[in-house]
Inverse folding.
């Protein structure tokens, strides 16, 4: 008898414990959901306010002559100086930034309207020089200031507009055939650009792929919407959880790009030169080419990287100034 | 046709085994092999191998490749329609005056610049060591041109790889040479 009563107690206790565990599990899930929803809102709020204001000094680079390739540089409220060598330009850029304690330079080009290739070569060189000297810069629309030549359409800064991810494919298609400013549209709509790729190694590709930069202006404001992959959206609940995960990724992602984001003049400067969206194929091909090159030249990967670094540093696309730069020209 | 077909490559140094044999048999004052103290075997591995493979790809992409280029045949590369880019693969001989190697012998830099049309406005990619003086001479002759130069010894095989990837990009995206080059260089830096 005692044995049977004991067995029944045990069974009912087991049922009770099981029940209790299930209730506890449900409560935990509900709490998790509530917590997650609250976190998501917080994360979204945090993300929507990710912004950083960069301060720029203004600098105008005028092209004095097509053949002599002399430049005149003038900072806002500063004196005008004439230079003929790239190191002098870089030196002046640095001194303007230091004097005004700014993060970068807004460079306005004058006299290049009918010579976009020269402008490009100058900026190519400037970028090389300023990357080494860590001077961020971006270009400004010169027609905002009276008495200044309008630059060629090629050099217009991005229009401030928001595009949805759905427009991306179309925009990208169009941008292939459009001048360089279209690249910003591609970037704004969230293509995997070079800078993003750098981060994508830290994050699952799909999350980065679905990041949509939907606000962008040159005051440093950046807003990002993270879209969960479509196949995750089969139920609101799962979607919500995925969104939370995304938000966590985004939070980290946004923090990183907060240090080096689209408003960062250094990133903008590099964007000026990239009209081509990078492709995974291209990067893979380069990786394979490097492996083959290392074996052909009998070098280790590190040795080859050093050699490539030197080759690239020594390469210049001449603009006559580069000759002067190196002090090789009288 | 992609924009890659607006590019041309001039190989002024031996680009295959036959040319190399001819070079060894009859140097005609050419300097590359002797000054670089490079063996035939090394040359085959570091120049002929990479250029043979690259050349096949370049031609498939529509790039015109000229081997055995001499000083007198150089102007052919700049003939109308104007190419967007001409790459000159050669060797620089220090001296007074410094000289550039062609398949039929060495030529002074002013002689080389003289072969370039004064109104040429494209890129001249100098895959030549220490090519600043040549770049300057070219700019004097053709002020609208954009020579790409290096002030150090260069490694031709590296630039062959860069050209290959840049030409591929041009073919795939219809990008200009300068854009493709920029992106390819970045990829080589970071890949």
């Amino acid at each position: 008898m005692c044995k049977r009563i004991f067995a029944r107690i045990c069974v009912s206790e087991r049922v009770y414990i099981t029940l209790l565990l299930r209730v506890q599990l449900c409560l935990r899930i509900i709490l998790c959901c509530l917590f997650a929803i609250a976190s998501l809102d917080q994360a979204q709020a945090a993300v929507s306010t990710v912004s950083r204001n960069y301060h720029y000094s203004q600098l105008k680079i005028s092209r004095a002559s097509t053949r002599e390739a002399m430049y005149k540089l003038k900072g806002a409220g500063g004196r005008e100086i004439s230079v003929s060598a790239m190191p002098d330009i870089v030196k002046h850029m640095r001194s303007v930034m230091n004097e005004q304690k700014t993060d970068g330079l807004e460079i306005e080009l004058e006299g290049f309207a009918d010579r976009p290739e020269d402008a490009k070569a100058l900026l190519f060189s400037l970028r090389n020089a300023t990357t080494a000297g860590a001077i961020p810069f971006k270009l400004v629309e010169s027609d905002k200031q009276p008495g200044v030549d309008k630059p060629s359409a090629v050099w217009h800064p991005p229009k401030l507009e928001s595009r949805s991810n759905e427009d991306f494919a179309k925009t990208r298609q169009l941008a292939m055939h459009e001048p360089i400013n279209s690249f910003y549209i591609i970037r704004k709509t969230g293509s995997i650009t070079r800078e993003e790729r750098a981060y994508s190694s830290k994050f699952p590709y799909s999350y980065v792929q679905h990041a949509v930069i939907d606000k962008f202006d040159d005051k440093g404001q950046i807003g990002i919407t993270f879209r969960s992959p479509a196949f995750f959206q089969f139920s609101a609940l799962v979607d919500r959880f995925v969104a939370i995960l995304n938000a966590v990724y985004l939070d980290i992602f946004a923090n990183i790009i907060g240090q080096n984001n689209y408003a960062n003049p250094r990133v903008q400067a590099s964007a000026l030169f990239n009209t081509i969206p990078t492709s995974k194929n291209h990067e893979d091909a380069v990786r394979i080419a490097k492996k083959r090159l290392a074996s052909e030249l009998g070098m280790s990967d590190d040795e080859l990287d050093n050699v490539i670094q030197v080759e690239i540093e020594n390469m210049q696309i001449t603009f006559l100034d580069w000759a002067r730069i190196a002090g090789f020209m009288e | 046709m992609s924009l890659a077909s607006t590019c041309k490559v001039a190989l002024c140094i031996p680009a295959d085994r036959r040319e190399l044999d001819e070079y060894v048999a009859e140097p005609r004052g050419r300097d590359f092999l002797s000054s670089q103290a490079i063996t035939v075997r090394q040359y085959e591995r570091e120049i002929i191998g990479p250029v043979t493979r690259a050349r096949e790809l370049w031609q498939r992409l529509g790039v015109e490749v000229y081997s055995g280029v001499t000083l007198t045949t150089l102007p052919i590369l700049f003939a109308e329609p104007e190419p967007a880019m001409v790459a000159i693969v050669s060797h620089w001989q220090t001296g007074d005056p410094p000289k550039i190697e062609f398949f039929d012998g060495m030529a002074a830099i002013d002689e080389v610049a003289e072969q370039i049309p004064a109104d040429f406005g494209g890129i001249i990619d100098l895959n030549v060591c220490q090519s600043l003086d040549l770049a300057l001479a070219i700019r004097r002759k053709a002020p609208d041109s954009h020579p790409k130069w290096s002030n150090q010894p260069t490694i031709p095989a590296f630039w062959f790889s860069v050209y290959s990837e840049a030409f591929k990009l041009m073919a795939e995206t219809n990008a200009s040479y300068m854009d493709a080059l920029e992106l390819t260089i970045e990829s080589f830096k970071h890949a």
Observations:
- The mean pLDDT of chain A is 52.
- Chain A touches chain B through 47 residues (CB under 8 Å).
